[in-house]
Inverse folding.
């Protein structure tokens, strides 16, 4: 349950503090600037994840390892929540509004500077495959879908395949097949979204 609390903090951080930093371009060295606060919160959340891993990783089931990797991926890529919008994933609230071109460029720039996100995306996929014989946890399709979106966006940006692991969008088939095996209702829409991204 600790990981769920950390993920909630990461989610709040990415929606509030990180969004503030993107809206205001200030000097990084000004006290209490948005950029300074972002770095401070990222360090604290990273430390919390490190403490959890040191205390519980060895005895955790694979479901919790996937949750840990999803937390790491979310923290390493603060603009992760924009990827479903860029991918055309339909379940959105009308009040969310579209992503502006400036936000899209900022998200792409962050992805280029965050090789950790690619690594965590592939690790999520590896651990999700090992869970295919059991009923998956509710967060597993979300983690696999977001991991697929990270890999998709890397291929769109034509990031170096030595950094991302693969350069072709056909690798999305791995994520699609994994989502098809899961019984959760949201998986159908996730599969359709990833299939559309392959074309």
């Amino acid at each position: 349950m600790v990981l769920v609390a950390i993920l909630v903090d990461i989610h709040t951080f990415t929606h509030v503090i990180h969004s503030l930093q993107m809206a205001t371009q200030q000097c990084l060295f000004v006290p209490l600037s948005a950029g300074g606060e972002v770095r401070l919160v990222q360090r604290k959340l990273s430390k919390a994840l490190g403490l959890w891993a040191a205390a519980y990783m060895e005895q955790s089931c694979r479901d919790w390892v996937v949750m840990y990797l999803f937390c790491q991926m979310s923290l390493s890529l603060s603009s992760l929540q924009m990827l479903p919008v860029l991918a055309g994933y339909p379940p959105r609230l009308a009040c969310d509004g579209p992503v502006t071109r400036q936000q899209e460029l900022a998200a792409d720039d962050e992805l280029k500077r965050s090789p950790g996100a690619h690594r965590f995306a592939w690790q999520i996929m590896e651990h999700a495959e090992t869970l295919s014989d059991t009923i998956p946890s509710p967060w597993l399709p979300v983690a696999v879908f977001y991991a697929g979106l990270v890999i998709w966006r890397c291929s769109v940006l034509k990031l170096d395949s030595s950094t991302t692991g693969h350069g072709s969008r056909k690798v999305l088939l791995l994520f699609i097949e994994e989502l098809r095996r899961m019984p959760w209702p949201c998986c159908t829409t996730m599969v359709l979204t990833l299939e559309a991204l392959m074309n």
Remarks:
- The chain is about 65% helix and 0% strand.
- Residues 2-198 form one domain.
- The chain has one domain: 2-198.
